Model the fold of this input.
Amino acid sequence: MRTKAMSSLVVLLSLTVNLFAQKTYTNTQFEFAIDKPIGWIELSGTELQAGFENLNLQDESLSNMIANHKGPILLTAYSKYDPASHISELIPKIQVSVIASGASSFDQFTNEITAGANSFKNHFEDFAFTSPVETVEISGVKSVHFSITFTLPTKEGNSWKVLSSTYAIPRGKFFFQVSLTDGQEMQDNAELFEKLVSSIVVGK
Done:
């Protein structure tokens, strides 16, 4: 009886460990990896990667695809809650995108990101930096980070206070943009976001 009970306990513990084990999103074409947030809903699937299956980082066609694409190419995204059941509140989200870059130096790249961040001023009256544009290192790569706050009006006439943190990681003719959006007043996922950013691996 004790043996059966112990066996059941081992199976239960094994299932529990597998349920909460950390999983990693990996894109071999772009050589990018990041831990998936445990318990969050993955909003993107394999169809996002389908267009890159037969390409590698050295292919000119990959660079052309990024350059010709209007706007960011979404690689993966996560939502803390099901959007369908939380329509009346701002849901924390994580997005990883690839964006074309014409910068020929890191200083030029920083200026490019800074200009993009400052453009928010044209859309949100209360826009403010909580962390200015700064240089950080991610996976051994010299990168750029900034955090901002702004009020987002909704179709229902309400408004949400948003805290958004962005990391831009240059990679040749493009860069990875990791966007972490949180409700400034309703949610606090700063510790989780910090762990996920520290898990990023580029170029391996």
User: Anything to note?
Assistant: The domain at 2-202 is CATH 3.40.1000.10 (Protein Transport Mog1p; Chain A).
